[in-house]
Amino acid sequence: MNAAVNSGAEGFLHRFDGLRARLPGTRMPWVQALREDAATRFRSAGFPTRRVEAWKYTDLRPVSDAGFDEALSILGDSADLPAPLCDRRAVFVDGRFREDASTLGSAEFAVDGLAQRLPQLEGRLGSLARPQEEPLVALNTMLFEDGLVVTVPAGVAGGLLELASFASGSERPAAFHPRHLIRLEAGASLTIVESARGPAETRYLHNPVFEIEVAEGATLTHTRVQQEGAKAFQLGTIYARVEAGGTYDNFTLNAGGRLVRNEIHVTLAGPRATCHMNGAQLLRHGQHADTTTFLDHAAPDCASRQTYKTVLSGKSRGVFQGKIHVHQVAQRTDGYQMNQALLLSPDAEIDSKPQLEIYADDVKCSHGATVGALDAEQLFYLRARGIPEEAARSMLVQAFLAEAIEGVADATSRAALEAAVSGWWEPAA
Amino acid sequence: MLKIEGLTAEVEGKPILKGIDLEVPDGEIHAIMGPNGSGKSTLSYVLAGRDGYEVTGGTAHFNGVDLLGLEPEERAAIGVFLAFQYPVELPGVGNANFLRTALNAQRRARGEGELDAMQFLKAARARLKELQMSEEMLKRGVNVGFSGGEKKRNEVLQMALLRPKLAILDETDSGLDIDALKIVADGVNALRAPEFSSLVITHYQRLLDYIVPDRVHVLMAGRIVKSGGPELAKELEATGYASVQAAA
């Protein structure tokens, strides 16, 4: 393959040309229209550069310079999967649903692969995602191959569902663009524990897009444990729309990957809707992780809480951008945003950009940011009790994160987060 | 147990200890008294190995081991315990986890077996009972939201669990009411044994009514200017430090 067209936006467009006839939905005009519109958009926009305000702190050149093959032509293996976290698990390998490796059982609601359900998804797929605004979402729309489709009927308590994504680590660097559709009907509930992993030595791109609908009085808890391989890129975008009295809780742990963007758009569309967006980023060496949130308060009496904590060692770089937009109708909005960073090395860097845009007059909205190092007194106290320095540092880092993780109510989610946090720390990182 | 010779130390380039000579034999409790700024806390931090307290001369040996060459955690593992004047709050670190991690780190360093959660809990409960403390103490964050008295009691609990050979109490009595003072004193007295020594640093004589020292040393301007028996503490209480200074 010609390296010149293998990389950059052109590489993706070139491969899209070749894959057109093989991607799911080839014979569905509405799918074709979505893909073609997205391709047109991606062709004109390309990868966002740092001149674009929303990408000021994250440079995508390592992604655009790298060459990839779409995973469609790569047959990954799903061997050596870690033990499931709960009874129901949907497994994805290189972005494709693997029913053979999944344990779905029977329940009051269906969990399916997107490719097989595509004929029934017209009007639903693409209802929230905005490829015209986000080039990476356009890229996903152009090339999506599969995804998770979950619909929890009205009033049903869906319990736990694990969404496990693995990169197989084939010799050719893979790029995969899953599209996940999650819908909770009125009064339904569901807890999704999502994990993303891949081999340490392989370069790959995981570019998922979520479209999440939370209807009146429904509650979705979404815990994400990102432990991609050390050379991996994960650029994920979530769109969530929460109707009256509904709740969307997102906790994202970014611990893996070389370059990671976690972008979340939430619209509180009905009165008394609530959203918690919390997360932790654990970064070392030359890792770069960017959490960018957009919270749209579009209805009155809604509440949102955001707390993000970032621990940085080595030459890592963390980014937090959080925008809260309070529409004129959104009276009595209660919004809170906090970003805290712990710098373990003089070469690490955190960039923080909170942004409040308020058009209503009866609003309680606050934000804050702190950056600090480990407290020397605390460290000495632990060491004076016999705890070796590295273990003492680890305890203090975990304590810094504990406040965020303790807030996760679901025990399975919390255990998955705690395991990832305690596994992250290695002496002399 | 502890032998300090000609010890000098400075903080931020300023000399604080100007030649300390002190020997605490096995099984003895020595008090160090002195006015504010005399170097009492500096001495305790130097012995515990805190960064920023730079030893510029002299030696300190603990059972023949050069204490000043060890990391703070190594000093703890061989049996040196510092009860802090201002115990540090550790939000997000549970007290039980902290105590067990410390105990097991010391045991590991000494080549002893570690305690599992159940064994630890059993040991901790026994110490709590002896010290008349509530088990709630284990569930909270280390010193987080503790009153001054609770923080000091938590220091005593740590001491009781870790069973050091040498306990250095840095003004543990400051800010304590009489009940808390008794608990601290009981904690030290409970450890009294032929192979246990203590260095009780205090500004006031009051604590020494409950922990009766074998020797009392007066520290002023970085030097020990006077030593004596327990009666010296009473004498100081009556005449103040100024009289010692005048005599010295």
Automatic annotation (TrEMBL), chain A:
Record-annotated SUF system FeS cluster assembly SufBD core domain positions: 172-400
InterPro entries: Fe-S_cluster_assembly_SufBD, SUF_FeS_clus_asmbl_SufBD_core, SUF_FeS_clus_asmbl_SufBD_sf, SUF_FeS_clus_asmbl_SufD, SufBD_N
Alphabetized Pfam families for the sequence: SUFBD_core, SufBD_N
Location of the SUF system FeS cluster assembly SufBD N-terminal domain: 14-71
Family as reported in the entry's similarity comment: Belongs to the iron-sulfur cluster assembly SufBD family.
Protein name listed in UniProt: Fe-S cluster assembly protein SufD
Annotated gene: sufD
UniProtKB/TrEMBL annotation, chain B:
Keyword ATP-binding: yes
Keywords associated with the record: ATP-binding, Nucleotide-binding
Segments forming domain ABC transporter: 2-246
Gene3D superfamilies hit by this protein: P-loop containing nucleotide triphosphate hydrolases
Keyword Translocase: no
Pfam families assigned to the protein according to its UniProt record, in alphabetical order: ABC_tran
Similarity comment text for this entry: Belongs to the ABC transporter superfamily. Ycf16 family.
PANTHER family: ABC TRANSPORTER I FAMILY MEMBER 6, CHLOROPLASTIC
Protein name listed in UniProt: Fe-S cluster assembly ATPase SufC
Species per Swiss-Prot/TrEMBL record: Paeniroseomonas aquatica
Lineage: Bacteria, Pseudomonadati, Pseudomonadota, Alphaproteobacteria, Acetobacterales
